[in-house]
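Quick one, T. Sequence first:
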Amino acid sequence: MNFRYDINGLRAYAVAAVVLFHFFPTSLEGGFAGVDVFFVISGFLMTAIIFKGLNGGSFSLLRFYLSRINRIVPALAVLCLVLLVAGWFLLPPLDYRTLGKHAGASVGFISNVVYLNEAGYFDADSHLKWLLHTWSLSVEWQFYLLYPVVLLAAFKTLGARATRALVPVAAVLGFGYGVYLTENDAESAYFLLSSRAWEMLVGGAAFLYPITLGRMAKRAVEGSGLALIILSVLLIDDSNLWPGALAFFPVIGAFMVLQAQRNDSVFTNNPVCQSLGAWSYSIYLWHWPLVVAIYYFELPAYTSYLALALSVLAGFLSYRFIERFSSKKNLSILGLWRCKPLQLALVAGVVSVAVFLTQGARFHYSDAVWAADSGRLSINSRRYECLKGGKGASAAQCVYDGDDSAPRVAVIGDSHAQSLLPMVHSLHDGKTLDWTMSSCRTISGVFRIRNDQEEHYCGNWVAQLKEKLEPDDTLVILNWLGRIFDNDEPGEYVPGTIGLPMKEYRERMASAYIDTVCELADAHRVIVIEDTPFFERDVPRVMALKRLLDDSSDQVRIPRDEYEAQMAHTRSVYRRAQNRCDITLVSPAKALCNERYCYGESDGHALFFDNNHLSREGAAKLKPLLAPYLGQASATP
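Structure tokens:
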């Protein structure tokens, strides 16, 4: 196959979309669709290599895999090693440990599975994962492993014609499955090969079934294809399920550009597109750590422009000096140990594992850095056992043992309430019930809408606890109500609130919360704790970075006025509940704030294990506030 300038130029559009989206997410909200374009291109090129070899009787799995290793591994392994070296000096131990885990998963091409099990691609924490973008390389590599094996087997058993037809049929079926999985498990659909393979198969179909077009038709098809890609990038955003039915448009756009075969197109065969296309893989690799660095070290906004230019420069240098670090493609299986890229990957893998197993090379940090960073581990030891959440979840009442003859205390609420359990249990003689549900407000009938379907597990949880509580139980309720009252868009509903203007929506939700709390107060003693302060960044991470970089600036804190602003909508709701029914209202500000500031740390210890959940030390600060109501008035932190 002669060099396809149109394919190289299409790579430029794809990488530009992804990179601009990452650096300027609010300006190009659908730029992530550029990855789908890359998948189509990969499918086209891999199908071309495989079928030409099969038809000519010269295809070799080993040579195919070696060519992929030569292409992908060197730049990826060098990136991982550079980050691991930089992390030694710049990252606190737990983040360095995570980097080791992610680097090992990246060079092992399983990072898509690792990230799926951690969180979603669009979550806030995604900007703290230095190698998150390697998920797509793992998907491609998994495709490279399976695709030639399937085609080779089909070619030998079914023949060339049937094997050729198998590709578009599999693409159609894969598209249907991808839409189904996206609607039922969007995060799995985003990261897994099973819901992405159809995109690469569409590229394969473009190679196997080329369309003969006239000069004018080629221009029209190419222009339409580029328009579909550009419109996808401009009109789609992260609120759309992806890769669902909407992924059809950038994928078919790329398919059309490939079918047009316009090697002389001004849109793709120009110096800018050809350069960016040639460097696209390395640009893609090196740009994301620069994006993370801006967020991680809180660099000024203008550095995004500098980092964008640096990404292109790094891409050029990596293409020129690293991507060409390869081995001969005629090595035998026994001679794989001489494959230079594999040697490089092995070094990166060994270093990654060593960093992970040594707790982020903990031995080379000062005690002060470790003490600060370990605040992220200062959580309720039963948190993951007892805190439920998500579609299909039902409340599983965890019990902290105590005197059966003494009254019980039930801690009720979301993940913020879960942080209180050990402290609350220490304040009385009876059993403590852990009745928490992640991201669920204590509101009767509350539900979410996801994928156009109502999810009622939060409302069901509230109904369950009402049925199972006993009259003598004391209830401690803590919810992050700011999720409802401070958001610009509704995230949760009770019947009759869908479609209401925000002012009316907030009032209906406030009334529903007050009704629920007061219903509980009619039958039980109820203590309601107001929302805790919310910090912009993880408190232990900031503390550890300050100590690591010898930053002697003030403690981690926010102005008291900022906390009061955070409470603007919710405080009136708590006061209304207190005025209507017999509840005890406790303000954590009395323990965590003074007149000027609210603090995230005290005496070298983090009071939060992230940016909004109390650590064990933070929960202990609230102990004197709850002690008068739970049986040990003389308790101290």
